[in-house]
Every structure is written in structure tokens, then in C-alpha cells.
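Lecture 7 notes: from sequence to structure.

We start with a single chain of 157 residues. Read the sequence below before looking at the structure.
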Amino acid sequence: MGKGTVYLYFQSKEEIFSEVVRRETALFLDRLEEVVHEDHGIADNLKRFIVARVTHLSERVMLHAVNQDIFSEVRTEGEKAVAYAVEKEREIVEAMLQRGIDKGELRTFDVHDIALAFISALKGIESRWVFQGEDLGLERKVELLVDLIINGVRYRN
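Now the structure, written as C-alpha cells:
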């Protein structure tokens, strides 16, 4: 296929990028929904969510690097896609946490704030891995993050 052929289907590089991001985001969110669809208990579901998220990212590191290069050229579309994905991830985590509260596995708390904290912590782990090449020690970090969310750090009386 010649270089110009793709422009029979897309009007610009930005439109191509937007479609790639849209499709990758949809695949990513579908995978997250799929792994937590069955209720394996809150701790197991959170672990499954983290592993699916990190696995998806690791499988697409090269695409992520390309996206970073192109991202500066099409910042608005990229920012919209990131914001959409974060919002959907938050909704998935909120639903898991609420299910844990409803089943009596967790005490009552603001699921919105905890979901955002969880996603932020996970993004921090991923950032160190993707951008700094740090060895994740994924299994240990998953255990620690889930333990922090499930049990907190304070002694309970």
C-alpha cells in the first residue's frame, strides 16, 4: 500500500492518530471490564485489574512511544483520549469498590476519591517502568497496592 493510499480513508495525520487512539482506548477499557466482570472478591478483582492494565501497557510500549512523539503534534485529541480512559478506569474501579462495600468486604468510604487515588498510584508505578525503565517487581507492587487499598496503613481497634 502506498503512503498516499491511507489518505483515501483519512483526511490527515491527526485523524489517523485519533482513530488509533480511539481503537486502542476501546480495546484497553474492554479488557479491563472483562477481567473484573466476574466477581472474585475485591482483593482478587483489584489484582486482576492491575495486572490487566500493566500487561496491556507492556504489550503496547512501542505504540506508547510513538504516541508520545506524535502527541505533541495532536495534543488536544491525545488529551481527550487520556481523560476519557482515566474516567472510564475510575468508573470500573469505583464499581469494584462499591461491590466490595455492598458485599461487606470493605467498610463504607468515598469510592470516588479512593478510585482516583488507586488509579494515580498505578499510573505512578507504570510511569517509573515505562519512562525510567525501572524493574517493576510487578507481583510485589500489586500486592502492596491492593493491601494498601484493602487494609489501609492504620491499626484498627
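The chain has one domain: 11-146. Keep this in mind for problem set 3.
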